[in-house]
Amino acid sequence: MDLQTLQQECLACQRCGLCQTRTNVVFGQGVPNAEVLFVGEGPGASEDEQGLPFVGRSGQLLDHYLEAIDLSREKNVYIANIVKCRPPQNRDPLPEESKACIPWLRQQFQILQPRIVVCLGRIAAQQMIGPEFLITREHGKFFDKQGTLFMGTYHPAALLRYPVNKPAVFGDFVALREKITQVCDHTY
Fold this sequence. Notes:
By secondary structure, the chain is an alpha/beta fold. The chain has 8 helices and 6 strands.
């Protein structure tokens, strides 16, 4: 299966109640041979409206960080979320919603086979790295899980609320660039 076929299946998803309030399924965006996968928790209002991940204010900030280390969704990365439909009022996804939706992300992962996964925010990091992950202490650190490196960093929306963390996240992205040069074949 390829990403396009999987996306067509996902667009008709009815696995949880979020399908009743969504405008669009936000499947993901990027290049199909990406070695670096970015994962957030779920779409917000702008994402639900456009059907694309990270396109609102936090997405613009993410794009600036990506650009700073010569990455972009058009050129060399893929961006997705734990849940593909917007939770009402941008609340955290409920455990049953995440559980119903995560098979889509697993299939994206199997198709892409990324070398590095960057978890954007606490929820994505706790789902993918481990439930004990603390973003304040462990952001920017790499965890090897069966040959794939996982790293968590602050969610761009959190940086808009607490800009004091922006320098730390820039440091995380610099460390990411260095790790990409070590383990990726064609990202740069």
